[in-house]
Amino acid sequence: MSGGKTKAESIQLQEGTSLASNGESEHGPLLAGEKLEDAARNIVFLCPFNGALAGTLFVTTYKVLFVSSDGEPRIKYAAPLGAVHSVEKVGGASSRGEHSYGLEILLKDIRTFRVAFKQEGHSRRTIYDLLYRLAFPLSFGSQLFAHEHLKSLTASGGGSKHDAEHAAARSAFSMAKELRRIGVPNEGWRLSAANEEYQFCSTYPAILTVPAAVTDVQLEAVSSFRSRARIPVLSWLHPENHASLTRGSQPLVGKLGKHSRDDEAYLDEISKANPNSQKLVVMDARPKLNAIANKAMGGGYEDEEHYANMELIFLDIGNIHVMRESLRKLREMCYPSIDDAHWMSNLENTHWLEHLRLVLVGTNRVVELMDRGRVSVFVHCSDGWDRTSQICALAMLLMDPHYRTIAGFATLIEKEWLAFGHKFQQRIGHGDKHSADEQRSPIFVQFIDAVWQVTRQFPCAFEFNESYLLTILDHLYSCRFGTFLGNSERERRAVEDTTRSLWVHVAEYREEFVNPLFSRYLHNHVLCPVVSIRRLQLWTAYYTRWNPRMRPQENEHDRTMELYRLCLRLQAQCSEMEGKLN
């Protein structure tokens, strides 16, 4: 929040909070395509930590920035406009209290940004209208900043560089390439082109992996019995015992308890594709009561009487509304002030860690069944793009060391979240003014939090560090890159040529995201984290990072980078000594 941020923090937050004052404009450097739109001077920023601060509020096409006018170093407070949840006017013409007339900007990353204006003049109205239009461009028929950012980069002479970057980003993740890596197609599984133009299922990837014995005509029959035609398809194949991890959506059982012979035969083929076990375990991520309630709306769950060699297990994970309410309580607990006397009880009342525990418990059950039991597992929730993505991605992270690398984790997100249709646009609300939309929910944030919990228990098993996770979450909101735009692979195809990939940015600053403790060969095995509530902690580096009183006295990232550079020097010395010996 104040000046003097480290390079690592600037890269991590990407908010323009690291602003130079040596010969640069008052608002600091701008990104490619970023333009200064307006500035409101002589306003007061109501900082919850430093009190009322006089200064200037700058609004660019990418961010909102406050710069104090008194003292050195100047206090700077910035946020990307993509992270704006809502903009509200505070007070009116008749307001008489000090600082009672202004704006309150609620941000998606926990913070609240409040400024006070003088009542004379119309500066508040001008800034309010500008912020509203720039923060929610899609509601006004405009484009998100990501498009202008790349356009400006290309126009400034980086056209050929962008072409190379774009090719690198696309080759970094290829569904066909990733499927070959896990060993498909093979005798049990084939690649289907039924969704090549997204005509089969608009929210699924173009390439689907299905049992080899099933034809595309049979897939059509199965699709009519699965919510939104999201049939069970392969996510991952165990390299040793060939147990499969498949994902899909709920069956359309309805009030009358319908069943489908095509669907029953299809799940039977999934179980037969595993030579070591003919059993299939269906993991329904929902609480059983929710699954029963969904019958009234045409959904439901599998009846074990109709499916051969199948076991149904409910994981009791709450829905998007439960998670949204939980994060709301966590926000109130963490910002702007923290009640130390009731910290533990307030944390318990949010139920955030309990929800995380249930996600991790479900993940461990999938891993145990597949790795030790050699049993194939089919995961679904209602539509199969929220809780299903969490469970499948976390299970793959625990079982496959490739996904614990920097590039591998990007592949995991591209495949299980982006390609399989997690509704980022709807869950985050990019550029949309409807802040009360009940479809918004922190499902992906919860997933990244769960990943962080695992990295705490296995600090040497991951190539990436905490800054990598924080950077991903910051750009989940920033709208600087096109990676998290849209609701599906189909929608994202329309913007991938006009926006830059987050993974290109990560590659540029790769050194900042490397975990110096990473030991590839010592941890080339399945991870089994302890999921007791006693082992889970609130991720303070994310949820309370804006509170200066909660920051560690020693910068952890600087310490990590120092250790990483030491490792590089020692590796160079070892290589030099080996060369002399040879």
What is the secondary structure topology, with strand pairs?
Elements: H1 7-13, E1 36-47, E2 51-60, E3 63-68, E4 76-80, E5 84-90, E6 102-107, E7 112-116, H2 123-135, H3 145-172, H4 175-181, E8 189-192, E9 208-211, H5 216-223, E10 233-237, E11 244-248, H6 261-272, E12 280-284, H7 288-295, E13 310-314, H8 320-334, H9 343-350, H10 352-372, E14 376-380, H11 387-399, H12 406-419, H13 424-429, H14 443-457, H15 466-478, H16 489-493, H17 502-508, H18 540-543, H19 556-581
Helix pairs in contact: 1-15, 8-9, 10-11, 10-14, 11-12, 11-14
How would you describe this protein?
- This protein has helices at 7-13, 123-135, 145-172, 175-181, 216-223, 261-272, 288-295, 320-334, 343-350, 352-372, 387-399, 406-419, 424-429, 443-457, 466-478, 489-493, 502-508, 540-543, 556-581; strands spanning 36-47, 51-60, 63-68, 76-80, 84-90, 102-107, 112-116, 189-192, 208-211, 233-237, 244-248, 280-284, 310-314, 376-380.
- It has 582 residues and is of the alpha+beta class.
- The strands form three sheets. It has a seven-stranded antiparallel sheet with strand order 4-3-2-1-7-6-5, with helices on one face. Strands 10-11-14-12-13 form a five-stranded mixed sheet, sandwiched between helices. A two-stranded antiparallel ribbon has the order 8-9.
Note the gap between the termini: 53 Å
Tally of strands: 14
Radius of gyration (Å) = 25 Å
What's the rounded overall pLDDT mean? 91
- Approximate strand percentage: 5-15%
Count of discrete alpha- or pi-helical segments spanning 4 or more residues: 19
Order of the strands making up the biggest sheet:
4-3-2-1-7-6-5
Largest sheet: 7 strands, antiparallel
Helical fraction equals: 25-40%
